[in-house]
Design goal:
single chain, 426 residues, alpha+beta, Heat Shock Protein 90, 3 domains, 7-stranded mixed sheet, 6-stranded mixed sheet, elongated
Amino acid sequence: MNPGVAVASVTPSAARLTESLRDIGYDFSSAVADLIDNSISAGAEKIRVIMDFDGEDSRVFIADDGTGMTVNGVIESLRFGSRREYELGDLGRYGLGLKTASLSQGRSVTVVSRSPRMKEPQIRRLDLDLIAEYDDWIVVVPPSDTAIVRARELLAGDTGTVVIWDKLDRILPAKQANGGWAKRRFDGLREKLATHLSMVFHRFLSGEGDARRIEIWLNDERLSSWDPFQRAEPETKELGNESFEVMVGDLAGKVHLRRFILPSRNAFSSPEAFDQASGPLKWNRQQGLYIYRANRLVQWGGWGGTRAVDEHTKLARASIDFGTDLDAAFNINVAKMRVALPPQLKQMLGRPISELCILANNAYRVDAPRRRSNGVAGMSQEVSNGAEIGLAIKAALVRTGNFEALTAISDLLKQESPDLAKSLGF
């Protein structure tokens, strides 16, 4: 096909495009997580996130002991739409993450990196104020300052990379960068970040399955993993695993489903364990699907459009795993915070998710009388006897592997005895 004759370059305005790319969906926690993805891909075993509050001169450092980069690698890492080829299983995706994540929080990002072939670290800076001044896609070798000195200390003569964020206008607006409010905001972001990283990278922090074990430190705190499925609790129940084949063009990829019913409040090992299991979004919003891409959690809570969130199914959680070969099918976004379930997968998930929710509903309602006797009100207080009987029938059919029979009975009752079907909750 003849592409036509080139008559003009349409290189975008660097000043305008870089400003617009600051707003593609990152918050502080997801921006840090995106850089940790790069560290994991670089083979890092220990990753340090340092949040250093100093008013207008506050900075964030993300340091790792990975393979590091050559000078060309450092420059390429600061290119929008990097030419790097991503291998199967890499946590990176579009070649935008380091830049867009960093600049979503501050106006300047500096990369300090040493590879095995380099005696001295290679240092380059991408600064939006310079880009605005020259309206060009430029990076510079910055003069040494206290942040670069600290980055060199963090590398300590070994291989690795340190990314420095400063001019943190999105974290600490210029007019409010100092004082008590700014310090409280900075501390609050650190607390949220700890929770976020413990959840998103929990498989790497615990070395679960084929996830390579790593350490993540936030300032002086080593983070522990937060298991959404609470498998250390004796009363947690796991249902049968399932796998599905999803097509992307002419190629097929595997998706794996694991389903869990968490213990009810009274069955948890302690009240503190129950509260801790509620997660960042708390029980109702934390129920549902936990979607993993190459062992990294990219979406959590809710049912991905397969059903609605319900108080009675809040004990139900399930993991969905897919590989990077299915990125197109899941429509993963740049910030790696949202995916969309492929329509073909939604259809295949119908039965196993319904089974899970029926059993979780039953577990919740069985616990309700105990909660009422302890003086704790529950939404099931006024549930009719008919609905309780109907739920018991549903749970029994699911447990005995007769989900198809349940569907047939439900359809027939709705057709021939709609009032009875309604009273039974069908």
